[in-house]
Every structure is written in structure tokens, then in C-alpha cells.
Task: inverse folding
């Protein structure tokens, strides 16, 4: 009996050791099986403002613990909705990146509440040589035309976001350089002298200022660093006049104007001066002016005489002047 009990004890210990070994192996070495789920992802690189259709989606498999909140799992939930932000290939489609089902479609959904989209026409010279693209940050400069004394340039709006350049709401894609490298560092070619419409996101008050500036002078854009949020603290917007580029120009212009006025005053005779008037009409200034002649009297008309003349049966009247 003692031998059987001993064998049973050794057998139980061996079984427990085997179970413990299998448990440790499965927990450390054996592959783990995780719960997987299918979600919607972009079928290609999609730009902001794209109206999504069924061909824009594909399903990818992800671990359930890695699924981001708000990801779409049904393609019908994303059809006819508009992208608010660009999507890359195989990037999960999140509801937060799409316009609302009952909201505005297209680019209008990119406009933040309380903002307005206003376009200005600029060329390369007035838009940092074409370097301004969608989502750039710019200042708006207004130049009032006129003479050197009247011309002035003022910064009317500071640090506004560019919604689009033309109809492009995304930065222009650039081809990779021939020798390799990062395509983002290669600037897109710009057409020299080309006029284009740049749409800015502004407040309603800034929209009115911008519209007035467009119709009263020339508008240009100054590109700024997106991280630079500094603004002028002056009560009036910063401006510059011709004095900044030609300090003595205003004085010279005023002096030339006064000289021209003096020459105009001395160019002709002073008609209030009797001598100048006499020289003008060729009269002797020392001779007293002649008395005006009285108007000639008209003689009264002489009386007329009417005589009746009878010639046979004819009777006529003849008039005779004295």
C-alpha cells in the first residue's frame, strides 16, 4: 500500500508539472489570438472637399483594441458626405473627418462657424511669387493709389488662413525630384504673371474691410509662418507713406508746387493796377481819363401831310414829308 500511495503522489506531481509547463509556454511563447474587426478605409489619397462615393472606400482588418473611436464600418454611412480633411491610402475613415449628414456639402463645409470666405484677385507679384497655397497664413496689404503725397500702404488684416487658391483647397502636389529625395521640399512650378483668385477665411467685419479695399485700391498678400500669431497692438493699422522711401520727397513736391503757383501769379499783368491797365490798352497813365460822351439825342420825326387828290372819278390820298 505504501508503494501505491508513493506512485500516486509522484504521478500527480508529474501531471501538475506538465500542466504548469504548458501554461507558461502558452503565455510566453505560443502565438496569441486577438479579436479582429473590419473597418472602412480610404481606397486612395483623397483631398479635402471630396464628395465620397462607394468607390472611395475599402475594408481593412484591424485588431479590435486598435480601432479608433468613431470609425465607419458601414459604407452607406459615408456616401455623399464631404471630407473636411484629406485622407491617405488605407487610413481609417472617421466620422469626425466628414461633414454632417444634413450639413453643407463641398468646400462650404470647410468654413468654420462665424467665418466668411472672400476671394481677392492677385498675381505672382502680389502673392509671394505663387508660394501662397491653401492653408497658408497671410497678411492683407492695401495700397491706395495717387501721387507721392497721397499714396499709402496699410496692413488691413493680419494672420488669416487661405481656404483655396483658385479651386484647389489642398496644397499643390509636387513631383519627386529626379535624383530622389523628399517631394515636399520641391516647390511647385508657378506660372509667371498669372492672375488667380485666392479665397481667405475672415470674420464678417474683416470681409467688409477686404471688399472696400478691393474696390478702392490694390490688394496684395504677405506670406507668414503659420506658427507666428503676432499682431500689431497699435490702435490704428500699421501703414507706410512715401516719406519712408523718399524722406525729402514731400518737401520737394511742396516747394515745386509753391514755385509753380508763384510763376502763375507773375505771368500776367495785375489788372487792378491802373498803370498796368494803361500799358495793356496803350494809354498814357498820366493823362486823366476822358469824360464819357453823352448819348446822342434823336431828332423827332418830321410831320407828314396827307392830301386828297381827285382824278376824275378816282380818289387817292398822297402823303408828303416836310
Result:
Amino acid at each position: 500500500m505504501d508503494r501505491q500511495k508513493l506512485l500516486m503522489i509522484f504521478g500527480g506531481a508529474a501531471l501538475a508539472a506538465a500542466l504548469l509547463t504548458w501554461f507558461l509556454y502558452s503565455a510566453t511563447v505560443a502565438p496569441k489570438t486577438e479579436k479582429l474587426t473590419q473597418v472602412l478605409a480610404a481606397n486612395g489619397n483623397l483631398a479635402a472637399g471630396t464628395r465620397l462615393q462607394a468607390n472611395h472606400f475599402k475594408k481593412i482588418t484591424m485588431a479590435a483594441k486598435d480601432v479608433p473611436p468613431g470609425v465607419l464600418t458601414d459604407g452607406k454611412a459615408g456616401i455623399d458626405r464631404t471630407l473636411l480633411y484629406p485622407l491617405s491610402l488605407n487610413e481609417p475613415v472617421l466620422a469626425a473627418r466628414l461633414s454632417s449628414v444634413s450639413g453643407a456639402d463641398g468646400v462650404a463645409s470647410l468654413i468654420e462657424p462665424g467665418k466668411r470666405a472672400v476671394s481677392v484677385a492677385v498675381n505672382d507679384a502680389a502673392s509671394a511669387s505663387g508660394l501662397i497655397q491653401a492653408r497658408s497664413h497671410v497678411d492683407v496689404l492695401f495700397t491706395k493709389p495717387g501721387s507721392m503725397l497721397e499714396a499709402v500702404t496699410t496692413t488691413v488684416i493680419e494672420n488669416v488662413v487661405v481656404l483655396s487658391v483658385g479651386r484647389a483647397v489642398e496644397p499643390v502636389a509636387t513631383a519627386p525630384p529626379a535624383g530622389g529625395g523628399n517631394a515636399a521640399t520641391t516647390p511647385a512650378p508657378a506660372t509667371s504673371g498669372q492672375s488667380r483668385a485666392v479665397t481667405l477665411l475672415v470674420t464678417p467685419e474683416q470681409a467688409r474691410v477686404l471688399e472696400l479695399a478691393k474696390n478702392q485700391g490694390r490688394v496684395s498678400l504677405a506670406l507668414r509662418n503659420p506658427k507666428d500669431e503676432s499682431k500689431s497692438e497699435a490702435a490704428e493699422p500699421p501703414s507706410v507713406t512715401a516719406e519712408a522711401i523718399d524722406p525729402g520727397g514731400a518737401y520737394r513736391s511742396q516747394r515745386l508746387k509753391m514755385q509753380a503757383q508763384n510763376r502763375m501769379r507773375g505771368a500776367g499783368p495785375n489788372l487792378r493796377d491802373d498803370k498796368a491797365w494803361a500799358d495793356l490798352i496803350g494809354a498814357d497813365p498820366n493823362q486823366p481819363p476822358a469824360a464819357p460822351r453823352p448819348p446822342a439825342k434823336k431828332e423827332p420825326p418830321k410831320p407828314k401831310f396827307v392830301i386828297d387828290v381827285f382824278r376824275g372819278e378816282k380818289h387817292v390820298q398822297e402823303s408828303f414829308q416836310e
